[in-house]
Design a protein that fits this description.
By secondary structure, the protein is an alpha/beta fold. The protein has 23 helices and 11 strands.
């Protein structure tokens, strides 16, 4: 049986791993947690009242409050200037912060310098495990919430998350602050257990140990850090049990495990735990947010302006991707946008949806100015879209992908889930019902539990449409949704788009399948070299000689262009 010290180390190592898990679930790689822990450990030992005995909970709680507060403040100070960094750049910046903190403490004689500072022992196995279970409870309740789904979406595809209405910057800072608080908790518990804290307790090696524990345990399920901590903390005991005392075994094994997990088990040990995705029973396919019991939005009436473009242009150096486009899209219209490859179609819709800012001209969509407005606010206003290259959240199920699409309609549930309030369950059930209707509408109800990456290409394209529909958009932008589909699938998609248009949805369709566009759209705009060369009904466009010469071709006006 593990001794008391081993039990404490498992618990506090798990808490430290959770500080890495907090940012990994949002796709961030931070190595500043050792610095936050050092600030919390030395700060609480200096400022908190001295405990009277082992197990002095009131004194420890004061120290924990001080340490976690200092961890939060440090994470905000570091997070605000570094949140625009990604991947290895964020890791290097945060690692530099942690090393700067360690060196600063070494040179502060008031904190004991390199020799460290004595701290009374207070933490017992029971205390350590209570804190670990509280942290695990936090992440257990976070996962299925609206907030937890947003973090998972950011981890999988940040651009797609923005297009679904998720404020990526705010969420990234929030998880950074959570990481700082947990690292602060770890620092306090470490200080009040080991009796003597030194700067070397919070070195680069400490940060790597915490990261390895989180990665080996897994960042896709809340039990991952606990599994990783149990496994790696018991390695020395296993060494002694089999008569191996070499100190290099543990770091060697940890490094080997990290390599094996990255190569063969990217989800860590937690990925071995089966995940259940329950498709709620629904009837009908009415997608209206009011029918689903969600927040409602006022959609433009038929003929009311939805999109206004005036002289809109986009230049990339000497390349004019879009030049002086004037265009108006009205409520209830299905507008087709066609043209040769490189004509500027995707650039144009990227400006309409706010992903790209125009060089000149104006764009107004649903009363806001994309390009001057954050992408998530454009989505919240009622603009939803698919992408030319499918941008699903690959490790999330079809149902979870669609739930992310409803982010702009649903209310936050995390805090209410923490308190087990019935309203949180009702709101989550409404969101599930709405997502299920969207999947049923595109014919994917039987594949709700399938991860997006496991779907066929045609199903992935349909899932993107379901996710976009889940936002109850006033303007739906479809960027080559039939790409890769056969004729039967494309015909079914055309029927779906037509049905959505008849329901009053305004649709902007980019597509190379000219026959599908002619059959589906009420009006067509043709781009060539970034300029509008024709606009009108399908019949008028098909008869336009300039369009035939530039795009349709005299022999194949009804077929797929070569």
């Amino acid at each position: 049986m593990p001794g008391d010290a081993t039990l404490v180390f498992i618990a506090i190592s798990g808490i430290f791993a959770f500080s890495f898990y907090a940012v990994l679930v949002a796709g961030q790689l931070s190595l500043g947690q050792a610095g936050f822990a050092a600030i919390a450990a030395f700060g609480s030992a200096t400022l908190a009242p001295a405990p009277s005995q082992v197990g002095d909970v009131p004194a420890l709680l004061i120290a924990v409050a001080i340490g976690m507060s200092m961890g939060v403040l440090a994470s905000i100070v570091l997070g605000l200037p570094t949140m625009h960094l990604r991947g290895v750049f964020l890791a290097i910046a945060t690692l530099g912060f942690a090393e700067a903190v360690r060196i600063l403490i070494i040179n502060m004689e008031s904190l004991g310098g390199a020799q460290g500072m004595p701290v009374p022992k207070v933490v017992t196995p029971a205390i350590a495990w209570v804190f670990l279970l509280l942290v695990a409870y936090w992440f257990w309740r976070q996962g299925p919430s609206r907030y937890g789904r947003a973090l998972a979406a950011i981890r999988e595809d940040e651009l797609a998350a923005r297009a679904m209405g998720i404020d990526v910057g705010r969420h990234r800072l929030q998880v950074f602050v959570t990481s700082g608080a947990l690292a602060g908790l770890y620092g306090v518990l470490w200080a009040y257990f080991v009796r003597l804290i030194a700067p070397e307790d919070f070195s680069f090696t400490t940060a790597i140990d915490g990261l390895v524990t989180a990665v080996v345990g897994g960042s896709t399920l809340f039990v991952g850090p606990i599994l990783g901590s149990i496994f790696l903390t018991l390695v020395p005991d296993l060494q002694r049990a089999i008569g191996i005392d070499a100190g290099w075994i543990r770091p060697f094994l940890a490094s080997l495990l990290l390599l094996l997990v990255i190569l063969f088990l990217p989800g860590g040990l937690a990925s071995l735990v089966p995940r259940r995705v329950r498709m709620p029973a629904v009837t009908g396919t009415d997608l209206g947010s009011e029918a689903a019991g969600l927040e409602t939005r006022q959609h433009p009436a038929d003929g009311e302006p939805v999109v206004r473009l005036r002289g809109l242009s986009k230049d990339y150096g000497g390349v004019h991707a879009v030049r002086g486009v004037d265009l108006e899209v009205t409520g209830g219209e299905i507008l087709g946008l066609i043209g040769p490859n490189g004509a500027g179609k995707t650039t144009l819709v990227n400006m309409i949806s706010g992903l790209v800012r125009g060089t000149s001209g104006t764009v107004e969509v649903l009363g806001i100015r994309p390009g001057r407005t954050a992408v998530h606010r454009v989505a919240a206003a009622g603009v939803s879209r698919t992408f030319q290259q499918s941008r699903l959240f690959p490790r999330l199920s079809a149902l979870e992908n669609t739930l992310v699409g409803s982010h702009v309609l649903t209310r936050p549930t995390f805090v209410r889930r923490m308190l087990w309030l019935p309203s949180a369950r009702r709101d989550e059930q409404r969101a599930l019902q709405h997502a299920a209707r969207c999947l049923r509408r595109v014919g994917l109800a039987d594949k709700a539990a399938v991860p997006a990456k496991a779907l066929s290409y045609g199903d992935q394209r349909r899932l993107e449409i379901a996710r976009a529909l889940a936002a109850d958009p006033s303007l739906l932008i479809l960027d080559e949704p039939a790409a890769g589909m056969n004729h039967v699938e494309a015909a079914g998609l055309s029927d779906l788009i037509g049905a959505l248009g008849r329901d009053g949805l305004t649709i902007l369709l980019i597509e190379h399948n000219v026959a599908m566009v002619m059959r589906t759209c009420s009006r067509i705009v043709v781009l060539n070299f970034g300029e509008v060369i024709a606009t009108g009904s399908p019949e008028e466009v098909a008869a336009n000689s300039e369009v035939v010469e530039a795009y349709l071709g005299s022999a194949e006006p009804e077929g797929e262009p070569r």
